[in-house]
Design a protein that fits this description.
The structure holds two protein chains of two kinds. Chain A is built from 14 helices and two strands; from the N terminus they run H-H-H-H-H-E-H-H-H-H-E-H-H-H-H-H. Chain A is mostly helical. Chain A has a single domain (2-305), classed as ABC transporter involved in vitamin B12 uptake, BtuC, CATH 1.10.3470. The longest helix of chain A is centred in the C-terminal third of the chain and has 27 residues, at 192-218. In chain B, strands 1-2 form a two-stranded antiparallel sheet. By secondary structure, chain B is mostly helical. Chain B starts with a helix and ends with a helix. Chain B has helices at residues 2-29, 35-54, 62-84, 93-114, 139-161, 163-173, 175-180, 185-210, 219-231, 237-257, 265-279, 283-297, and strands at residues 129-132, 135-138. Classes of the chains: A mainly alpha, B mainly alpha. Chain A binds chain B through residues 52, 54, 56, 100-101, 103-108, 110-112, 114-116, 118-119, 122-123, 125-126, 229, 233, 240, 272-276, 278-283, 286-287, 290, and chain B through 32, 80, 83-84, 90-98, 100-109, 111-112, 219-220, 223, 226-227, 261, 263-264, 266-267, 270-271, 273-274, 277-278, 281.
Chain lengths: 306, 298
């Protein structure tokens, strides 16, 4: 089973990397979108899933990454060189926010993150260097689909591999302890703040890089697009639907949400029912199967074996 | 100076109305009700529908909106709230996420019925203003203030003078002890959810007379309401009023006396929410209590 699962992961990675050889541009675009979703979902899961700290403010990190890339590219820096800096800035911001915010527990932390992300969005729409509501455009001729495709796929693979490694490392065990009972974790010597900060910074850095790649691909960003609350929403939704706190969950969640999105968009009657579906899924999952798709799979397996 | 004071007072009335709904539900059930934003938004649209269909004045329609949303809240409690109501002292993340889902569904509901276009309620007095103490005040905001005061007086009488109110306060203070004394906590929770929704609906309907709205409307007011109840110490009745005053004073003071642009005003209240959560989790009452204790020791 373990080996089969590993081979499956490897096959998926190889398929995604080799896809440009046999798929046309439209399908590659879908794969690009899926990889982007997988990155955001898996990165969020590092803090939200493994450590149980549900943040609704991840759009801030995405926006920071995206703006770092665009603004530096406009100063003639190679866009791909800007990615590490975007990651660093997002990570620094996550620490600045996390230091005070991690004193809060559970839902209070969640509310605080909404407040921060919304404050960032409002500020970004007001200050001048973000282009305000009209946004900013990448310099012309800074885009090559293949390079961007490989970069996105590679980041997705690295993120999932990192999540798998974290899950089984001492770091992951500490995060799991914090999730289960923060007082007990502290009592046995886990410095909860430090681990939460580390997980927050790691996931923020990944989301920052993804934001940079997003900007390179879309060529145009505005506060209303990269700091949008709906972005934070879908970042949270995917791992929860797929199975929060597992390595495979965010991947399934990204797949489910992405497929739904494409299907809904292709049906004119249902084009405006995203939120029904998202909200409905969120309610159903939280009420009946908090482990999401992965939990349903486990139940089915138990049924088959019993 | 008088103009800032008067505007603060007017805004505080509305703020308190929208924050009380959140505070009651939190107090009785330890649920952070993110659907509050959705209910406020629906309140605005129901007032809009009553106004356009039946030419019902938005302030008269409050008489319809309040009971309607009370029922809505009770149904919502029976369908969803009941399953996520926390028994412990701290709210659960599950309840927050479930009610977040409810908010999304409500938003989509409004999109389907009223589309995403910006709507507004224009009455004969929308653009009128009156002079109070030499300050020009918009007629709608004066009406909103009066209606807010009326609903707050109603809530106060309900909480302080009736058995139901006593039961609500008892469950807020200690659910288990209230159960031991024979309070039907489940029914009280349903009533509290209904009351919370009614207040949200009324607040939304009143907001609709002051500004244009879309189905996405409500988020910034939800955050402001949170800011207020955090400042107010989460479950104290006077605390909410104080929190509302503080937030309104800050916003109006910033607008009048500092060069901070109005577009940044929301960012200030969101930042205040963060600061309040982190710096004084017990709210302003807790802060004062700490000062008193300190001076008592000296």
């Amino acid at each position: 089973m373990k080996i089969a699962a590993r081979l499956l992961w490897l096959a998926a990675a190889i398929f995604a990397l080799a896809a440009p050889l046999f798929l046309e541009r439209g399908s590659l675009n879908d794969l690009w979108n899926l990889a982007f979703a997988v990155i955001l979902a898996s990165a969020w899961n590092l803090l939200g899933g493994f450590a149980g700290q549900v943040s609704l403010g991840y759009s801030a990190f995405l926006g920071i990454g995206a703006y770092t890339t665009v603004l530096l590219s406009l100063k003639d820096v190679n866009p791909f060189v800007t990615l590490p800096l975007g990651a660093l800035l997002a990570a620094v911001f996550s620490v600045v926010i996390g230091l005070p915010a991690f004193r809060l527990r559970g839902p209070y932390f969640t509310i605080a993150t909404i407040g921060v992300a919304e404050a960032v969005r409002v500020c970004a729409s007001t200050v001048e260097f973000t282009g305000g509501s009209s946004g900013v455009r990448m310099p012309a001729a800074s885009f090559d689909f293949n390079t961007n495709y490989f970069a996105m796929i590679a980041l997705a693979i690295v993120t999932v591999a990192l999540a798998a490694w974290v899950k089984n490392s001492a770091f992951g065990v500490a995060l799991a302890a914090i999730k289960q009972d923060i007082d007990a974790a502290e009592a046995v010597g886990v410095n909860s703040t430090r681990f939460k900060l580390a997980a927050h910074a790691l996931s923020a850095a990944i989301v920052g890089v993804a934001g940079g790649l997003y900007a390179i691909d879309f060529q145009y960003i505005a506060p209303a697009s990269v700091f949008d609350f709906r972005l934070s929403l879908s970042i949270v939704l995917m791992p929860i639907i797929g199975g929060v706190g597992t390595v495979a969950g965010p991947l399934f969640g990204a797949l489910i949400v992405n497929t739904l999105q494409i299907k809904l968009l292709s049906m004119p009657a249902l084009r405006d029912s995203f939120l029904f579906v998202y909200g409905g899924l969120l309610i159903v999952v939280m009420l009946f199967e908090p482990q999401g798709f992965v939990g349903v799979g486990r139940r089915l397996r138990r049924l088959v074996h019993a | 100076m008088t103009s800032v004071l008067l505007n603060t007072l007017l805004a505080a009335g509305l703020y308190a109305t929208m924050a009380y709904g959140l505070a009651i539900i939190y107090g009785v059930m330890r649920i952070i009700n993110l659907a509050h934003a959705g209910v406020m938004m629906l309140g605005a649209y129901v007032a809009f529908a009553l106004f356009t269909r039946f030419a019902l004045d938005p302030f008269v329609s409050l008489v319809v909106v309040a009971p309607l949303f009370f029922l809505f809240g009770v149904v919502l409690y029976a369908a969803i709230g009941r399953r996520v109501a926390g028994a412990g002292a701290t709210p659960s993340i599950e309840s927050l996420l479930v009610l977040f889902g409810v908010w999304l569904v409500l938003q989509n509901f409004a999109y389907v019925i009223w589309t995403g276009d910006t709507q507004s309620i224009l009455t004969a007095y929308t653009m009128k203003s009156i002079k109070v103490l030499g300050v020009r005040l918009g007629v709608p905001s004066v009406f909103v203030f009066l209606a807010s005061v009326a609903s707050l007086v109603f809530l106060n009488v309900l909480l302080k003078r009736t058995y139901l109110g006593k039961a609500i306060r008892a469950v807020t203070q200690n659910r288990d002890a209230a159960l031991l004394y024979g309070v039907n906590a489940n029914r009280i929770s349903a009533v509290a959810f209904g009351l919370g929704s009614a207040f949200a609906g009324v607040a939304g309907a009143m907001l609709a007379t002051l500004m244009a709205f879309t189905p996405d409307f409500g988020r910034s007011f939800l955050l402001k309401a949170f800011c207020i109840i955090v400042l107010g110490g989460m479950e104290s009745v006077t605390g909410v009023a104080v929190g509302a005053l503080v937030l309104a004073a800050l916003e109006n003071g910033l607008a009048a006396w500092t060069p901070v642009p109005t577009s940044l005003q929301d960012a200030v209240s969101f930042a205040l929410l963060f600061v309040a959560l982190v710096a004084f989790p017990q709210g302003l009452p807790g802060l004062f209590a700490r000062f008193e204790r300190r001076s008592a020791i000296r």
